[in-house]
Amino acid sequence: MRYPEDSKAVMTDLVLPSETNPLNNLFGGELLARMDRAASIAARRHSRRIVVTASVNHVAFNKAIPLGSVVTVEAKVSRAFKTSLEIVIDVWIEDRESGRRTKANDAIYTFVAVDDLGNPVPVPKIEPQTDLEKERFEGALRRKQLSLVLAGKMNPKDATELKAIFE
Ligand SMILES: CC(C)(COP(=O)(O)OP(=O)(O)OC[C@H]1O[C@@H](n2cnc3c(N)ncnc32)[C@H](O)[C@@H]1OP(=O)(O)O)[C@@H](O)C(=O)NCCC(=O)NCCS
C-alpha cells in the first residue's frame, strides 16, 4: 500500500524563446512533454517499475503561458489499478513580483508498468489521504472506462461507471 504523496513529482522550469508559439506563449507540445516527464516520474515512484505512457486522457490548455514564465508541473498518482496508473498533473505559473501561484493547466495521463519485455505487470495499491486525493481516486475508474471505450478497448455496455452517470 502506498500514498499519492509518495509519488509526487514537481518540475520547475522557465519558458525559453525556442519553446514558444508565434504569440510568444509556451508551445502546447512542449507542455505535453513536460507533463509526460513529470507523470512518468510519479508513475515510476509508485510502481518502482519501468512505466510507459498508455494514454493522454485529458488536457485543458486553460491559460496561455507567456515567454519567460516560471512553470511548475506537479504530478501525482491518483489511482492504481491492476497494471495501470492514473496520474493527475497540475500546472502552475508564478507572478514575478508577488510570487503568487496561478493554476494554468491540468491533465490526466495513464501509465502502465511493464517488465523488461514490455509486458504489463501489477502495481501496488494506493490509499488516498486528502479530500482532493479521495475525489480524484473516486473519479478515476469512470475516466479509465471512458478512455478504454474511446480507444475501442472496452464495450460501452461494460462501462458500468459511465452508465451510472446517465441512469
Ligand atoms: C500500454 C501498453 C503496455 C498496454 O498494453 P496492452 O496490450 O493494451 O495491455 P492490456 O490490455 O493488458 O492493458 C494494460 C493496462 O493498460 C490499460 N490501458 C490500455 N490502454 C488504455 C487506454 N487507452 N486508456 C486507459 N487505460 C488503458 C488497461 O486497462 C490495463 O489496465 P489494468 O491492468 O490496470 O486493468 C501497450 O499498448 C504499449 O506498450 N503501448 C506503447 C506505449 C508507449 O510506447 N508509450 C510511449 C508512446 S511514444
Provide the spatial order of strands within the biggest beta sheet.
1-3-4-5-2
Instruction: Give the amount of beta strand, in percent.
Output: 25-35%
Please tell me the total number of domains: 1
Shape: globular
What binds here, in terms of ligands, is: coenzyme A
The CATH architecture assignment turns out to be: Roll
Q: In CATH terms, what is the fold-level topology?
A: Thiol Ester Dehydrase, Chain A
Described by strand count, sense and barrel closure, the largest sheet is: 5 strands, antiparallel
Structural class: alpha+beta
Radius of gyration, CA atoms, in whole angstroms: 17 Å
Parts with pLDDT < 50 across at least 5 consecutive residues: none
